[in-house]
């Protein structure tokens, strides 16, 4: 299992034409293992004492975003949440569901929504990212 994650990181960095460095590999490993959108703060916590300094984490995430390796998924409480772009198509990321009660966010990769079409002339839509709100199974009283 360990080798496969390692190989995956190697492969993803290679595709993005990014040199493999310790911090890059560590941050990517956290994002891949998280299974949901993750903040820089959560990455630092997860890496504990092995965590690179905050500036390096932010800079690395920005580099990943620029290289298309990672997506900025959404802002919550003024904090960006990041996620590997591997499950997204060029034009669409899977929807995210945020529970209005507990505040947890879930990835909903099985939902594929039709691409929005603008009724207004001149707007060219390149990318669609949908954020859903409601009650999660844990908070839904009808479940
Ligand atoms: Zn909830
Ligand atoms: Zn997601």
Q: Can you characterise this structure?
A:
The chain is α+β, with helices and mostly antiparallel strands. The protein has 4 helices and 5 strands. It has a 3-stranded mixed β-sheet, with no helix packed on it. Strand 1 and strand 2 (79-84) form a beta hairpin. The model has no long low-confidence stretch (mean pLDDT 90). The chain binds zinc ion (2 copies). Residues 99, 101-102, 104, 136, 138-139 line the site of one zinc ion (ZN).
Descriptive labels:
single chain, three-stranded mixed β-sheet, 4 helices, 5 strands, binds zinc ion
Spatial ordering of strands, largest sheet: 4-3-5
Largest sheet: 3 strands, mixed
What series of H and E elements makes up the topology?
A: HHHHEEEEE
Bound molecules: zinc ion
Enumerate how many helices there are, as a single number: 4
**Weakly predicted, low-confidence segments:** none
* Beta fraction: 15-25%
SS-based class: alpha+beta
The span between the termini is 35 Å
């Amino acid at each position: 299992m360990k080798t496969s994650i390692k190989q995956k990181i190697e492969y993803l960095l290679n595709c993005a034409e990014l040199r493999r460095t310790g911090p890059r590999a560590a941050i990517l490993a956290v994002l891949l293992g998280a299974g949901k959108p993750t903040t820089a703060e959560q990455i630092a916590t997860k890496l504990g004492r092995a965590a690179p300094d905050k500036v390096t984490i932010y800079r690395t995430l920005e580099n990943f975003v620029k290289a298309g390796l990672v997506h900025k998924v959404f802002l919550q409480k003024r904090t960006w949440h990041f996620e590997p772009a591997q499950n997204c198509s060029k034009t669409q990321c899977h929807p995210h569901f945020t529970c209005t009660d507990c505040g947890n966010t879930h990835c909903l990769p099985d939902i594929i929504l039709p691409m929005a079409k603008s009724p207004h002339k001149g707007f060219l839509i390149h990318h669609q990212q949908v954020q859903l709100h409601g009650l999660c199974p844990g908070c839904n009283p009808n479940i």
